Amino acid sequence: MKYFxxxxxxxVNAKIPDNSEVYFAKPPIPGIKRxxxxxxxxxxxxxxxxxxxxxxxxxxxxxxxxxxxDNCQPFPATKKPDLRQIMxxxxxxxxxxxxxxxxxxxxxxxxxxxRKMKEHELRYMLGKDIMDEFYPHQLRNFDAEDxxxxxxxxKTEHDEIxxxxxxxxxxxxxxxxxxxxxxxxxxHKSVAVGLGTYNSIAPHHSPHMTSExxxxxxxxxSHMHACIERMSRLIQKETPIFVLEAAMNGAIYPFHxxxxxxxxxxCNFVEKVIKTFTPPTLSILPESARYKILKSxxxxxxxxxxxxxxxxxxxxxxxALMKDQLAIDIPRQFSTLVFGLPDMSxxxxxxxxxxxxxxxxxxGYVFNWFYNKPIIKENGVVIIMNPTYxxxxxxxxxxxxxxYEEVLEDTTEPFEMQQKYQEKxxxxxxxxxxxxxxxAHHGFHPFxxxxxxxxxxxxxxxVILVGPKDPRVAQRLGVEWAKNLDDALGMxxxxxxxxxVVALTxxxxxxxxxxx
Length: 516
Fold this sequence. Notes:
The chain has helices spanning about 35-45, 55, 85-95, 120-135, 165-170, 190-195, 200, 205-210, 225-240, 270-285, 285-295, 310-325, 355-365, 400-410, 415-425, 430-435, 445-450, 455-460, 470-475, 485-495; strands spanning about 1-5, 10-15, 20-25, 65-70, 105-110, 140, 150-155, 160-165, 175-180, 240-250, 305-310, 325-330, 335-340, 375-385, 460-465, 480, 500-505, 510-515. The protein is an alpha/beta fold. It has a 6-stranded parallel beta sheet with strand order 3-17-13-14-15-16, with helices on one face. A 6-stranded mixed beta sheet has the order 6-5-4-9-10-11, with helices on both faces. A two-stranded antiparallel ribbon has the order 1-2.
């Protein structure tokens, strides 16, 4: 059978066994249109969950810190105006009405250890009016290495250090504006991680947190999220946190591209024809042209609901909404997973995906996108289809390139690399300068994404990479290589003794409820 999927910046009709199962996301749940979002946002602030209305939390003397996500989520980028622009414009209007003075309002992009957003990216996200009013003196990126601005909040009951930006403790109220695409994000993670330093992120982004439990991508059953919650509650003791969460639907594709994420049975005649001819048409184009085409896509995401108030109350509603959109039933586990990976990663915004992110996107993200148990049987096989070019963005992925060339040459084992290299990279003065002043991900960041693969690296019998012309890249990544999909399926068959294959079509994204 044909499996219509991504292969980097290409779309292909891959051949998989006829008895294979292919799963797709649910259609997008209808969301709030941009023209209605300001009213819905105001209503959320006026009628919050388990907190007083916003007007009762602020007055003419209040210092307010407004936090918002970087462009890692939702991804790919949304069309303009970005929903954060609408929500923050509405929030500012309310604050002014309630007597808060402009001089007492600070906006901050909660980038954690991600790369900082550039001025033009902030302008795209927040719009001209907010930028003109606040940038750069009252609108900035968080800087986890700014010694003058970082303060220690204390230690959790597990002796975990909690550090954050001084502005969070100086404020009378923190308001976090959050667009949530998957259950990984939002809730207690927002402030505790978004304004987290290396010292406070290292305890939960650690192989110890994921080696025995695969739950990284959702709070339930997750050691990582439990640690984050402990830190968040410590910050809440110092400053009240008021969250606004927009639970996003699955409308990743604009109307003319929705066929990409739909099963054939749901496609009309024209869409079926386009699906047939898209791969050979794209094959005619050079890789650089395909890259530009796919990176130019702007998504149609809309919030299913907007809720404000207490972290626990709001995030409980968000997670339920996410489940309505994301959950699909898969009746059983399979021996082999085949996945065509696009040139897409939350850590490769405005960049090509690099080899480290190829492994992280599949084993850290896709493998863990389930609610109860993995889609793949223990000792199963994952086949990754991606050309996996050895390309590292010169600004953004400085630490990733060093990690690939030095750490992975020595070891791919998470605990070993943690012991031998983590501190070196996290404290490296050159990498710190790149993070602070040159829009690079922090030196610790490539370790964090690799650690999310700790459980599947132990759980699976084999990971096979199909795409590179020779085995060199696969060997560096510590995985197997096959020259084509047929050979990879043969290798998987030799392990399981049968063709027991599942393939996933993403994006749009989904989480699995796996049967017995």
